[in-house]
Design brief:
The protein is an all-alpha fold. Helices cover 77% and strands 0% of the residues.
Length: 120
């Protein structure tokens, strides 16, 4: 696997992990960080780690754009993050995973495969 694809994979994992952490940060007993309660805001580590991972995902996306066309990098990163978040939601939050979710993920993978076929 070349560096351009590794960058995108790490961008996808950073983005999806950030989503999981922000979801964790909003679940009781944690609260949304606010200026009214600075100690609660500072102690909500999943929120801050999620925010940092969103930043990392953005930097990785920018690095991918230096190596890949926009019409390839964006669909791969977006679709990859959507599919990864769907899987992570089942693993970490025991959310439902209906057959339509599986079908949607497979269709997204097929579509991104067609988009990237000429670049690989």
């Amino acid at each position: 696997m070349s560096i351009k694809w590794l960058i995108l994979v790490f961008g996808i994992l950073s983005n999806a992990s950030a989503s999981v952490l922000v979801k964790m940060a909003m679940m009781p007993p944690r609260k949304f960080p606010s200026f009214g309660d600075p100690m609660a805001a500072l102690s909500n580590w999943p929120f801050w780690l999620g925010l940092a991972l969103y930043g990392a995902a953005f930097v990785l996306y920018a690095a991918a754009l230096a190596r890949l066309p926009l019409n390839v990098a964006h669909p791969v990163l977006t679709a990859g993050a959507v599919a990864t978040v769907a899987v992570f939601s089942v693993i970490f939050f025991r959310e439902s995973f209906h057959w339509t979710t599986v079908a949607g993920i497979l269709l997204v993978i097929a579509g991104v495969g067609l988009i990237t076929a000429r670049v690989a």
